[in-house]
Amino acid sequence: MARIEVVVTGLGVVSPIGLGYAEFAESLAYGVTGLGPWSGDPERLVGELHGFEVNDWLIAEKTYLDRASELALAATRLCCLDAGLEALPMPEERRGVVLGSAYGCAATMAAYGGRVKQRGTRFATPVLFSHAFANTPASLVAIDYRLKGYHATVTSGAASGELALVTAIGALAAGHADLILAGGVEGLVPQGGPACSGDPDNYDPFDAAVHPSGEGAAVLLLETPASAAAREAAPRCRLTLSDSAAGADLVVLPRAGSSLVSDTVPVCAPSGLYGDALGASGALAMAASVAAITQAVVPPVRGGGGALADRREPMAQAMQAVAVAAPGGLWLTVTPA
Amino acid sequence: MRRVVVTGLGQVSALGVGCDRFWRRLIAGESGLRAMERLPAAGLRNALAGEVPAGEWAQQEPSALPSARGFAACAAAEAAATAGLSLTAWPGAVVYATNFGGQHEWFERTPAPDSLSALDFHAPATAVGAPGMAVTLSNACSSGTHALGHAADLVRLGFSDVALVCGFDELGLFCLSGLSILHTITTDTIRPFDRKRSGTVFGEGAAALVVEEADHARARGAEPLAEVLGYGVNNNAFHMTAPDHGGEGMVQVIRRALQQAELPPDRVGHVNAHATGTEYHDPAEAAALLTVLGDHGRHIPVSAIKGATGHAMGAAGAIEAVACVLALRQQVVPPTLNLDEPDPGCALDHVMGTARDAHFEVALSVSAGLGGNNAAVLLGRA
Predict the structure, then answer these.
(1) Residue A40, burial from CB neighbour count under 10 angstroms (0-12, 13-18, 19+)
(2) Which of A264, A327, B146, B283 places its Cα 20 to 30 Å from the Cα of A19?
(3) Are residues B135 and A113, on separate chains, in Cβ contact within 8 Å?
(4) Nearest-CA residue of chain B relative to A163?
(5) Residue A192 above 60 pLDDT?
């Protein structure tokens, strides 16, 4: 099994617990919840973005954007700002984008499809159709940021975010690109998702029968070590893809409800603070892992977190490795730069 | 670096079920395009499409209506069987490719409350029933080619010794209404590279390939059918729907595929073109081929098979890769149907009228899709 190491030189997060990596990391460390009643149905508990204005994060004019595209473009902009890059390194052909999403542009798909179903095929709307593709968010990111190299949209259900990162790391290792903006994105699914209700402060991601839906996006700037060194970029951390989590000081679960609980290694489920953002969850967990290791803080755990179960306060602890599980027995492990 | 070979093939398309039938009909110059039977054409620019033949499908799968789920499962089963492997005990990774996923299923079932699950693009792939790491790629109509290249990378990099590739898509009013309103669909028929081309005709189906590390295949006695030499995937980064007139994105993916394969352009002996028959795409693709291959590109046979299969969207690249593998094995290249008067702006060695014997070691397959996606893969003779 291959062991591949890349570096993370930027992070952009759009989440119910913070806009931008710094806000996200701070909320995570202090256990600030982003769960609350959904604006579309106050009976439902969700992780919804409030106060998010996509206009603040666009670098080009738009006639229309699906929610997922909005989140992807904003996370990309925040990632570039975090990396200190007004312009991405050249050449354009060596930089790419890989985004994961379970439902893609679900709201636009539903709007487009509903119109055609109700009124007939002559009422098809070109702008809605072209914004309803799974790959629309990644294509829009590529267009705005001139990413003319490696390109992929991963649509593998709730594991899309982890698999987008795996795909991007593989592409870097295979020599298809020098740097890739990689992550996951998910808007709140229009027709529902699980009917979760209750008090967000009592929600236990390890024990609840139903988990609140969430929305958000996280984009990481991944580079080959040589690419970062060539432009003298200081990596935030290293990211290794392998088949082992040996040596991890902390395991971060992408989604609640996972059975992956260890009695020897602390396990945290940050989605307990922002909901199950499906295709974005793996990338958000990656951002949480970077936050844990760079801030030297184990985020609070509510419920059955194994070795450090039900610990409601953050814990200062220097860590050498934080791991996120990916399908196929793979692990994405963050280590200090 | 580990070498990657193809050891299994399967396909379902407008030309029928199974690779043998597909190849026989393709080489005979037959077309699977006809007026749609399953879907109403009212309001669409054309009733012509490449539906999987209903009778043949009913014979193959008497209990299941034609669907993306069924096509994917059927093609994957054929590929696994030819590779001598079990799908239910699949020993490696799986890379699916789709443009529209379960959208047709969702469209038919909505607004039923449980219809939402079909909007998960990965949903139809679950019918294949293969365990293990499954990645679904959705790079519009270049997805199938990308999936083959990505699966080969997973094997090359040591993630897996064996990987299944399965591209699938299904015709439905969701996709056809949009492709019609964008005028991607012709009111005539698809005429790749022809002076009178006016758009494409869509199709459906699935194709699957088993890719495997060469020594692993040899050790278990599996016959290598072809070698996956290299691939490239990118984005024009230009516009969601407008074409990249110069074909620069296609130039770059072909160059990247050659670079990964460590081959000079003059080793390419056959091209299976994307060639959708749209006004802008075909000359851009021809220009891209000539830019990379130079004068050599004017003297190698170029086939465009969408006149036989229709443009099967996320499955197209996988179906065309199957055609390349069979062409390499048989040393015969399929004809480009409906190409009567080549556009001078597409000055290539077109395989017109009938199939042609050819002696070549390397085939190039090119794909492109909405959103500015491009992909190219190089396959070598085993």
Answers:
(1) exposed
(2) A327
(3) no
(4) B135
(5) no
Of B111, B178, B256, the CB nearest to A176: B256
Q: Which ipTM did the prediction report?
A: 0.97
The DSSP 8-state label assigned to residue B262 in this structure reads: T
CA B101 to chain centre: 15
Write the DSSP symbol of residue B298.
G
Q: Is the pLDDT of residue A151 over 70?
A: yes
Question: Is the per-residue pLDDT at B369 higher than 70?
Answer: yes
Average pLDDT value for residue range A91-114: 94
Tell me the residue type at A119: R
Q: How far apart are CA A192 and CA A215, in angstroms?
A: 12
Distance CA B123, CA B105 (A): 10
Backbone phi, then psi, for B329, in 5-degree steps? -70, -40
Q: Does the annotation count B270 as an active-site position?
A: no
Residue type, B135: V
Q: Is B178 in Cβ contact with A134 (below 8 Å)?
A: no
B76-106 pLDDT tens trace: 999 999 999 999 999 999 999 999 998 888 8
Closest residue by Cα to residue A206 from A279, A255, A266: A255
Do you find a cis peptide bond into A205, omega within 30 degrees of 0? no
Q: Select from B110, B112, B172 the least CA-distant residue to A121.
A: B172
Q: How distant is the alpha carbon of residue B124 from its chain centre?
A: 17
CB A113 within 8 A of CB B103: yes
Question: In 10 A of CB A132, how many CB atoms?
Answer: 25
Chain B residues within 8 A of A133 when measuring between CB atoms: 99, 138, 140, 370-371
Band (pLDDT 50/70/90 cuts) for residue A261 is: low
Are A328 and B233 within 8 A, CB to CB? no
Could you read off the pLDDT of B133-171 as tens digits, one per residue? 899 999 999 999 999 999 999 999 999 999 999 999 999
Give dist(CA B171, CA B122) in Å, integer: 17
Nearest-Cα distance to chain B for A191, in Å, is: 7
The answer on pLDDT for A255 being more than 90 is: no
How confident is the model at residue A197, as a pLDDT? 84
Inter-CA distances, A325 with A291, A328, B39, Å: 17, 9, 43
Report how far residue B138's alpha carbon sits from residue A220's, in angstroms, rounded to the nearest whole number. Answer: 20
B141 classed as catalytic: yes
Q: Which residues of B touch A147 (CB under 8 A)?
A: 235, 237
Tell which residue, B376, B377, B373, has the closest CA to residue B139.
B373
The larger pLDDT score, comparing residue A317 to residue B306, is at B306
pLDDT of residue B295: 97
Give chain B positions within 8 Å (CB) of A2: 157-159
Polymer length of chain A: 337
CA dist., res. A190 & res. A72, Å (int): 18
